[in-house]
Amino acid sequence: MELTGTVRHLILDFLIRSHADDRKTPLEQPPIGRDADSLLSLFAVLADSTLNESPGRITLLENVLNFSELGLAEPVLRAVSAAGYETPTPIQAQAIPLVISGCDLLGVAQTGTGKTAAFALPILHRLLQSNSTRPAQGRGDRRKIRVLVLSPTRELAVQISESFATYGQGSGLRQLVVFGGVSQYHQVKELRAGVDILVATPGRLLDLREQGFIDLSHVEVLVLDEADRMLDMGFLNSVRRIVADVPKERQTLFFSATMPNDVRQLADSMLCHPQRVEITPVATTAERVQQSVYFVEKPNKVRLLRHLLRQEGVTRTLVFTKTKHGADKVVRMLEDSNFSADAIHANRSQSQRQRALTNFKSGRTSVLVATDIASRGIDVDSITHVINYDLPLEIDNYVHRIGRTARAGASGIAISFCSPEERGLLTSIERLIRQRLEQRHDLPAFAAEPSRQAHATGHADDRRATRGNDSQPQTAAVIQPRRAFSLNAPPANHSARRPNSAPRRPATPNGEFSGPPSRGPKRPRRFGKPNGFASSGR
């Protein structure tokens, strides 16, 4: 769609006015009103775009063909090309021009759509542009933290840091990732040397800040990635404390896969006239993921898992369990069947978790069993299958679990195991994703398949119906005696305290004693005065 110069002017005027902040002076405004290069790069993208009906939102009508059309700096483009990326994803095509222009951004997109590059690339562009106009630092001047990226988990923080290192190769910018579970010695050493970009988890960041190793007074860009997950893990108060230490004159980028009310309230308190980029409706699954469900009894889940892992085409599988103990148990049972498997959950140390991820990425381990800690932020190429061994208690995690496959335009398969007690969770998941999962019928012989209707009515009704069936013979309900009596066989000795030499009372076939108990020899004392050794205290 070709836009006239007047329409372009109106669009830019709309962006400037929507981003204007009464607290800022004209000289403190973001570069959208002063940087001619940013305006020109924004023109190139807006030429094929139009405004949505809702204010503050821009939606591209045609995909951008390559990254060179987004106005990124030449070093960033070279790094992107060296990494093998040519065509931006929809979230990248829409978010990158807005971030370059200096707007606050609220991005909503499902996992696996390239959200990390959507904020990493324009941030690197901004730092390179500002470095070209900033006076050179002296040898004694230490670099200040200018970009702060918050991540809910260690694995996601490592992934974001690796992305900045890949895209910023040759830029001369320093970046560091800090997280808990490991010694802070090397992290403090890097902080003292100075960094430009800091990727951190909230807990370790606050710990280092309280010790005086981190200064957030020079932060220019604040990024919250996977904000909904951060709130689910209880980091709300920590995030508010961190935001309070960051300067108010900043650019804030807020990314989330879902947008519940508490996340929306946090975004409203942090963002200033943000532009909203929403690629797909909230809580929708990737189109290239083939989803299905097996109705199987809980004891047969591990046998069904072994059966599926032996199928052709199952090369790299991510298995999700409900508990940490369950993950370890599944790994032990798979190893007993000669499968190369490893587990990742919160009870494992950071070195163990990182080693498990490295082996899974390199192919040494074909099966990775994880809890929901890995349902976000684990970017592993060529995951062919995601198996929900247990359905998630938080139904939103289903979308993030299956988002581990079918990444970067690939296809994948997501299989769920549903036991009778998980039928309610399955119904909630189907209501959330607005589709009904395909029921698989190719169960092996060991797992008798209960129907979807049987799961819906419940097995308790089936048992009540069985008890009330008059066609069954009534003799089947007669309780047999625990042991049969014989006229010739003496009854068993039930008294553990009666000596074997004591005479036994005769018993009838019904088990009733026929006469009064006989007075045998005196029973030995088991309790009473202690012996000589006990009385002497030895």
Summarize the helices and strands and which ones pair or pack.
Blueprint: H1 5-19, H2 36-46, E1 49-51, E2 58-60, H3 74-82, H4 90-101, E3 105-108, H5 115-133, E4 147-150, H6 154-167, E5 175-178, H7 185-193, E6 197-200, H8 202-210, E7 221-224, H9 227-232, H10 236-245, E8 251-256, H11 261-270, E9 275-278, E10 289-295, H12 301-309, E11 317-320, H13 324-336, E12 341-344, H14 350-362, E13 367-370, E14 385-388, H15 396-402, E15 412-418, H16 423-433, E16 438-439, H17 452-457, H18 459-467, H19 532-535
Parallel strand pairs: 3-8, 3-9, 4-6, 4-7, 5-6, 7-8, 10-15, 10-16, 11-13, 11-14, 12-13, 14-15
Antiparallel strand pairs: 1-2
Helix pairs in contact: 2-4, 4-5, 5-6, 8-10
Can you describe this structure?
By secondary structure, this protein is α/β, with parallel strands linked by helices. It is built from 19 helices and 16 strands. The strands form 3 sheets. Strands 5-6-4-7-8-3-9 form a 7-stranded parallel sheet, with helices on both faces. α14 (350-362) links the parallel β12 and β13. The longest helix has 19 residues, at 115-133. The protein starts with a helix and ends with a helix. The model is unreliable at 1-10, 12-62, 457-487, 493-498 and 534-538 (pLDDT under 50).
